[in-house]
Amino acid sequence: EFRPYVCMLPRNYSSPIFWDDRTLFAHGTRSDLATRTNAAKLSLVQQYNRLLPLLFSRARTLFDPAVHTLPVFLWAAQTVKSRNWFVNRQRPPFVQYAMLPLGDMINHRPHEKGGGRTSEDGARFELRSGSDYAAGDEVFISYGNHCNLYLLLTYGFEVEGNDVNCTRRGGLATEKPP
Prior knowledge:
Blueprint: H1 3-8, H2 21-25, H3 32-58, H4 70-83, E1 84-88, E2 95-99, E3 107-108, E4 114-118, E5 125-129, E6 140-141, H5 148-155, E7 166-169, E8 172-175
Parallel strand pairs: 3-6
Antiparallel strand pairs: 1-2, 4-5, 7-8
Helix pairs in contact: 3-4
């Protein structure tokens, strides 16, 4: 049963897709942050407008338009985006994504060794840290060597002093290759 996990998820996120225009445009109306945030919002609104009417008509007992609103859809999308793990499997389907409740308890620290990976036999997903911890210590891994724009859009935070640069490609910010 996943109810305890779902109930422990944050009710609100600090991702820019939830910011009002005043907060977003304080970074500049033509900034990479505003451009990427608005593109992400538009894509999510289009997905909602395409998918939810089908669910409302075909699974009316499960999906109620009064409950499953656009803000709820945005919350669910951000939950999956910020909490899914890439799982490389040894047999089909070879690539999957999974939400791992234990993984939600581990925070990001730049340059921390360790991370998540599929076990050698492909039977389980393993989280490994490159540091030793005492009982009760907060555990960290690195979410990857990402620029602050990516971290903010994906996880809702920035890292002070982050030296990973973003560059423009096709009008949108992407990470500069190492």
